[in-house]
Design brief:
The complex is a heterotrimer of chains A (221), B (122) and C (210). With 221 residues, chain A is of the alpha+beta class. Chain A has two domains: 4-75, no CATH class; 84-211, 2-Layer Sandwich (Heat Shock Protein 90). Chain A is built from eight helices and five strands. Chain A has a five-stranded antiparallel sheet, covered by helices on one side. Helices cover 60% and strands 14% of the residues of chain C. Chain C has helices at 3-21, 37-84, 106-123, 140-156, 167-175, 189-202, and strands at residues 89-92, 95-102, 127-135, 159-163, 184-186. Classes of the chains: A alpha+beta (221), B alpha/beta (122), C alpha/beta (210). The A-B interface holds A 93-94, 96-97, 100-101, 104, 113-114, 116-118, 120-121, 124-125, 128, 176, 180, 183-184, 186-187, 190-191 and B 14-18, 48-53, 56, 78-81, 83-84, 87-89.
Chain lengths: 221, 122, 210
Amino acid sequence: MALVRDVVAETLQGASLIPVAARSIVTTLPPSANAEVGSLDVVAGHDLLRYLASGLRVFASAPQPALLEELHRRITAGKGFKPTARVLTVTSDHHVVMAQEAAQGMLRGLFKPTDCIRVATAVSELARNIYLYAQTGEVRLTLAEEPDWSLTFSVLAADHGPGIPNLEEILAGNYRSRTGLGKGLTGARALLDGLDIKTSPAGTTIKGFKKSRPPDPLRDQ
Amino acid sequence: MRLGHCLFVLVPGNLRDAAARELHDAVSARLAKEHGIRGLVIDVSALSIVDSYAARVLDETAHVARSFGSKTVLVGLHPEVAVTLVELGIDLSALDTALNLERALAKLKLRIVSEDEDGPGP
Amino acid sequence: MTVADQKERLDKVIDALARATCQDYSHRLPVQDVEDDLLELEVGVNMLLEDLEKVSRQNAESLAEIERKNQEIAERSAMALRELATPIILVWKGVLALPVIGAVDTERSADMMDALLNKVVVEQATHVVIDITGVSVLDTRTADHFIRMAKAVRLLGASCYITGISPAIAQTLAQLSVDTSTAKTVQRLSDALRQVFHELAVVPTRAPER
């Protein structure tokens, strides 16, 4: 099974890079390069791509979108990076902060700074609703790569709490929700691209997502 | 921390709900106990995220301050946080904001001065 | 060689040439092992078709290359235009002006808001003037973007003017209940700037009018 490092070396050799440049980039690759081809997840993979992009910028005078594309393709064996996922159990305000940090850490450098904060804030609202109103539940954060290489962040907040009363009224926004629960829901919805809520007295499941825009090959990655 | 007529509060990062409430309680206690505090400066530069709960605690603290005759100014708000607060539809009615400590103090001093000039204010 | 055979061969030549006029250079004439005048014609036509096909292929490759380069240039221009299209001007110490021109969609307004707020912090701005005279379509949704921008600026501690508003749009904004402490709406950019400088001039002696 080929290693990422070998594939990178091969690709760089095939490109019109001076040998010193190619060697230099390969010998200073981060540890993620020791993984097998096709095994890297989104966060590690894009981290590696960012490193390669800056290496190419140093040695080549212009950014090399085509070369980066090829590296991306070969490192992932044409299948794209695997989704990165983190699951957190939420039972206290401590976990709300952990969820915030997990979201920020996952998206740092991959989403625009304001979008990172939007997402982290929405995650915070959803996590807080769990520990305040359902006592215990789970928050799952996922970052996945789309076929066009844009990234989609998803959050799944699930609990077995008493459910959300007056959900329709809250979501219709006909009146400003006065409870923390309602504010948290409308807030999360305003900050994300989409929010889907299923609730009953047996529990609540909330799915939200936010997309990043496709990476601009001409912009510095 | 108190300096003259001003009370300074530095909000730590990664603020848990419990810590936020403690901060609110501590400030309220101080405002009740000490006299002559005319201004409250809250530095939030360590906060990279302010959600509806944190915003509510800040607003409540400012209301408490107002009831003791003190104005509140927020300093060090991150631009990204400003965006999320606006998009969350949160109105921080009792709070004024300033980009740096100097301006915060200027706002407080001027407010206090103009109030004294106008006579007993609200 | 019979006359019929010769006619057939000539027909084939005409056919091949006819196809060539339709840019099909793939056909080749069958060449017989007969040394006659027609053979010279047939070989000549084949060589011509060979050349035409080669040139045609090279042209197609060049065109594809040009197309690719055009696309690249278009993307670079779009990016440059995106950056140019959101100029934030420091008109005075602590005073920022953002003249908005053209179509404003959600993405562009988000970019503008990010850039503006960051500039406010970097420059420690006291006043911001957003001029929307040049906005091509101002519906309630677009107006909402600018209201949010103004609210966010105020939340950072600077005061914010929105200028370039016609009376009709002023009515729309009033319906969206923009209160004057959030954003002062003034019709002309020059009026807003005059007011800003007026405020700046009197800051040392009394509290600024809010």
